């Protein structure tokens, strides 16, 4: 059992305690971050004349060799070690001797693991931002293609008013745009280096924390050593942002699942992103959308687990905080996979424009516009609302859409109706005359598309 802290103890750790305490099974994914941080640390130590140049060179060469050998499969991280830090240090000492024992000078595992987690999370924030950009590019391309693809807009899952597919997709563009901006916000706030905080009270060695922070690409060092080793706010923020991404993906997935149903038939999911039934040969199931919807709770669980872990911890570091990793790693992996697969499903999905347009026509989505038509003819809005309510009831009895009623049928409801009503309540008119910022009219949509293109380019 390779440990960094045995000197004070006179008896071996119980095997069950050792394995319960160990984190090597999951923190081994910190290998690159641990070595990156260690290299920056020893470069700073040499600059401060705490290490000699020869010692620094030997340690850097040894650390680089360990990283290369692990990636090449020549060296395996095993549970012989308590954590990734002891794995690196033990192998370094084996390779370069006493110089390797100086690696940990002026450093604690507390600030070391805080650094590793922050470096890893920072990379995940950047990677998530890139995947969100890819998804936004897909959505923008689809919006450009469907500015005249008419469909019903819904409230309460009931047809409400006619919109375009571009407008509907644009709502999700806004959601994922906010998600991307959250990544940038988290990155900016978290980008301060905890290394040099020691266990909780800094160190007597003359470390240059500003220099170490600059080597690792941080804005600067953290300003309180106790907070440095006990802060997981940035990880909670990231898990919260990941939960919002999953909530948005889940809402979108729910709509795709509905649209894919036999009752709607708005979309055709590509075979590569569907599966069939073992017993029902006619089935084509939207499994990716369903799995994304299902995995949302998994990511929520990681957020709630870490919030619960952190809520009662006194300053500074406590072993409870080791629980920040496993579920957070799972959440990061889950969101990464969901974004990739959802984007692929979306890019290969086709839309049944004729079915969508017919659905909008048959759902009385132009009823509001019919009421507006009467208002423009001088009918008070409340009376117009009542007239159109009676008209819809008549349409239901006759199994007709409003614009399928002939003029005599319309005049039987109200003699204000005239031939120009058909143009006023056509889907195209209903959509195109809505031109305020954010509305589904084509000119408004083209404006939104251009603004979103500028956003992505910036």
Number of strands: 6
Low-confidence stretches: none
Name the helicity range: 55-70%
Shape verdict: elongated
Count of individual helical segments: 19
Observed structural traits:
two-stranded antiparallel ribbon; two-stranded parallel sheet; elongated; mainly alpha; 5% strand; 458 residues; 6 strands
Summarize the structure.
With 458 residues, the protein is mostly helical.
Helices and strands in order:
Blueprint: H1 15-21, H2 24-27, H3 31-47, H4 53-72, H5 84-96, H6 109-145, E1 150-155, E2 158-164, H7 165-190, E3 192-193, H8 209-215, E4 220-221, H9 225-230, H10 233-260, E5 267-268, H11 287-310, H12 326-348, E6 350-351, H13 353-362, H14 367-376, H15 381-398, H16 407-413, H17 421-424, H18 427-432, H19 442-457
Helix pairs in contact: 3-4, 3-6, 3-8, 4-5, 6-7, 6-12, 6-19, 7-10, 7-19, 10-11, 10-12, 11-12, 14-15
